[in-house]
Design a protein that fits this description.
Layout: E1 5-9, H1 13-24, E2 28-33, H2 38-47, E3 50-53, H3 59-69, E4 73-76, H4 80-83, H5 86-92, E5 97-98, H6 106-109, H7 111-120, E6 129-132, H8 135-142, E7 148-152, E8 162-164, H9 172-190, E9 201-205, E10 210-218, E11 223-225, E12 229-231, E13 234-236, E14 240-243, E15 248-251, H10 262-283, E16 289-298, E17 301-308, H11 315-322, E18 323-324, H12 327-335, E19 344-345, E20 349-357, H13 364-367, E21 368-373, E22 381-384, E23 387-390, E24 393-397, E25 402-408, H14 411-422, E26 426-427, E27 432-433, H15 441-460
Parallel strand pairs: 1-2, 1-4, 2-3, 4-5
Antiparallel strand pairs: 6-9, 7-8, 7-9, 10-11, 10-16, 12-15, 13-14, 15-20, 16-17, 18-19, 20-25, 20-27, 21-24, 21-26, 22-25, 23-24
């Protein structure tokens, strides 16, 4: 596969990690992104490829880039290009594409579609759910709802999710107001810019437990799972604050996490296998590309929180570094509908720390255009994410700017190395926000305790 011309769509930390891995297998890398990611720019130069400034969600622009680059394989990194028909346009023009079609990517785009298809095909791990198209429909239900998770019905980059416990009778009126206010915010702010989906609000039964994600490659029939990773969506230490696109992730050592068993891993793999089969039946199209199951180990056992129609970010940074085997070959085979390559995993543990400007994720107007200073780090690697180069300076794009990766014999050792580097990433005249607790000894111990509690209750059911 050496010398194959591969066009990578997207310009974030996930794409930097994917691009690095593809180049390691000998790919000549092209990149189509709206931001000038210095990590990806360097990879294109080193491999003899080319960086194209283009809107990654525009089918027409990406198609023009693919033609100009003479791509032999196109890899779609983020979800939005899939939702907006980029994959469809490329395939229609004869390109070989690793990425879900617009129909298949509904599994992430529409949380209602995902829950409904699990219910229809009796796929394990589903939750009770209710969906609404308007505030008027939702208000009556919210007045009598108990413990619930309130979400945008569409994938919105991790924004708008709120989990509410309503167990104290003396606070029931206050909790009802919180539910109603948050639901209105989702409808008027988060979902206002999306016109490509009918359902606006999703309400699910609330569950507690330990989250984990299993990602996979598929050609629409065979599913090749990757090692389990745990992402951490909360902004601040000790899992508090608003939910984000992910503030850091841990993996290993090896295929499992210290607090997740082989059986729990296999449940996630089964869900992925069955949903890939169900999508083909439901849409008439094979699911081709990466697919991920974000899971939670609860008192009901492992349940599905949501699907991704791509690799996670930052979870991709972990797996692209520890997976054994030829990732380029696996992607090319999957895109051709003939996935045969086996992918293993090194017996290493890893940790990723995401660094964002203070104000993320709620005040992106304050987080854009901040100059970023990234140090040289020993024992860790830096992946560039939501950044751009302007007037010779590295500036933030409003989201997580840098993702720091490190390995160790244990997650705690890897996290310590990542922390040493993350602490040196600075924004000029602005504060940063990141999670030094992710992967630490308290973190592992706490999740192990919660997981054991969930299993003990689940075993009594």
């Amino acid at each position: 596969m050496a010398g194959e011309r591969v066009l990578l769509v997207g310009g974030g930390g996930r794409e930097h990690a994917i691009g690095e891995r593809l180049v390691s297998h000998g790919a000549v890398l092209g990149v189509a992104a709206s931001n000038l990611n210095p990590g990806l720019l360097s990879l294109t130069k080193d491999s003899g490829g080319e960086f194209f400034k283009a809107n990654p969600t525009s089918p027409q622009e990406v198609l023009e880039v693919a033609k100009k680059f003479k791509a032999e394989l196109v890899v779609i990194g983020p979800e939005e290009p899939q939702f907006r028909g980029v994959t469809d346009a490329l395939r229609a023009a004869g390109f070989t594409v690793f990425g879900a079609s617009s129909k298949a990517s509904e599994i992430e785009k529409s949380k209602v579609f995902a829950r409904s298809i699990m219910k229809k095909y009796n796929i394990p791990g589903n939750l009770d759910f209710w969906f609404f198209e308007s505030w008027e429909e939702a208000i009556e239900f919210l007045e009598r709802a108990g413990n619930v998770a309130i979400k945008p019905a569409r994938q919105a980059g991790g924004k708008g999710v709120k989990v509410i416990s309503d167990v104290q009778a003396y606070l029931s009126e206050e909790k009802k107001k919180v539910k109603e206010e948050h639901a209105k915010r989702i409808l008027t702010e988060v979902m206002a810019k999306y016109t490509d989906i009918k359902e606006k609000l999703l309400i699910e039964e609330k569950v507690d437990g330990v989250e984990y994600t299993v990602q996979a490659f598929t050609d629409g029939e065979r599913v090749v799972p990757l090692p389990a990773v745990q992402d951490n969506p909360h902004l601040f230490v000790y899992d508090v604050g608003p939910e984000t696109g992910g503030m850091g992730s841990v993996q290993g050592p090896g295929k499992l996490l210290p607090f997740i068993t082989e059986e729990e891993y296999k449940v996630a793999v089964e869900i992925l296998e069955r949903v890939v089969e169900a999508i083909a039946k439901e849409t008439g199209e094979k699911y081709v590309g990466a697919i991920s199951a974000q899971m939670m180990l609860t008192t009901k056992g492992p349940v599905l929180i949501e699907f991704y129609s791509r690799l996670g970010d930052p979870e991709a940074v972990n797996v692209m570094n520890v997976v054994e085997g030829n990732v380029l070959e696996a992607m090319f085979e999957a895109a051709q509908g003939n996935l045969k390559t086996e992918l293993g995993v090194r017996e290493a543990a890893s940790a990723v720390k995401c660094i964002a400007p203070m104000g993320y994720p709620e005040r992106r107007d304050l987080t854009k255009g901040r100059e970023v200073l990234v140090p040289e780090c020993e024992g860790a690697k830096v992946y560039y994410a939501s950044v751009d180069v302007k007037d010779g300076k590295l500036v933030s794009g409003g989201s997580r700017a840098v993702e720091v990766y490190a390995e160790g014999k244990s997650i705690s050792e890897a996290a310590e190395k990542a922390n040493a580097c993350a602490s040196k990433v600075k924004f000029v005249n602005w504060k940063s926000v990141w999670r030094p607790d992710i992967g630490g000894e308290w973190y592992i111990r706490r999740r192990s305790e919660v997981a054991e509690l969930m299993r003990s209750v689940w075993g009594l059911r």
